[in-house]
Amino acid sequence: LDLGAGAGIIGVALATLPKIKRVHMVDSSWAALEAMQRTLAANAACLPADTQITTLHAEVGELPRDAFDLIVSNPPFHDGREEDRELIGRFAQSAARVMRPRACFYAVCNKHLPYREPLSRVFTKVDVAWEDNRFRIWACRAPRT
Known about the structure:
alpha/beta; 3-stranded parallel sheet; globular
């Protein structure tokens, strides 16, 4: 599941991996949904024929009634012009609701954002999977019940 998929770049990249057979890309923006469709069309020749890709317009709390092994997101930290650092918590809660027991939620974020605390409120295991000078990828497992 690519949560808050935007143009769908992460979801399309995942769809090219051999073990991935199903990708759902979800965003609350109609413009993003159109961008996803364009990204899929532009990359159609690179996508395996046996991989099912679905795009969906939905709010972060209205995810498909399904269970996922892997959830990825590059969540926004702005809601319009205003910075909203609680968005990561809503993304994490939505991810936790649709995760299979051994699943992982990866969130790509700007490094300066203080996201360990809101992620730790939702997950018992929150680790840095990768980082550089600008970005950090959080790996979150084991949702709190």
